[in-house]
Fold this protein.
Amino acid sequence: MSSPFSDADIQEGLLGNEAQMIRYVFYEHFHTMLRFNAQKAAGNKSVGLDDLIQELYLYMSRNNWEKLRKYSTEYPFASWFSVVSYRFFKDYTHSMIDSSRNLPIAEMSDHNISIAGTSRIETMMIDIKAAISKLTPPRDKEVVEAFLINEEEPAEIAQRLNVSVDNLYNIKRRALAKLIKDHLQEYVNR
């Protein structure tokens, strides 16, 4: 499918932070290619492809689209974007795996020690904090900690992460679902 936009139009629209162009590039025209690259880079690892695409957007838009500013329109945008996205997904999924090689919560020594005077709620909070510390990607961990542990205001969190408040709530929703599914299922089943 051919693009209604030239490569220069795409670059200019992204650099201008035009919502329509961001949606077009990350979620419409190149979305299938991005999902393919994310799946290929992740291999058989269980990752959320749309989460990876969101992380790519954050990476690309960092420092006023610094990476995109290096792109030259003498090369096809689709080819350049495919290479950049694949490299990002490969590096990102490897960093996720490396940072999650900790022991499961049940094997953590401080969870197997019975501390006199520790209530069930306090024990649960210890487990929840430990589970949050294992969340990947790191942004999910940061969002959940900011909301639940630090009780920060959504607008402050969104500004720090350079996302809209609506997007922040989507990140929080997905992160909490992942937290419960991967680390806190035993509490849900009680």
About this structure: The chain has two domains: 7-99, 105-188. The radius of gyration is 20 Å. The CA atoms of residues 64 and 73 lie 18 Å apart.
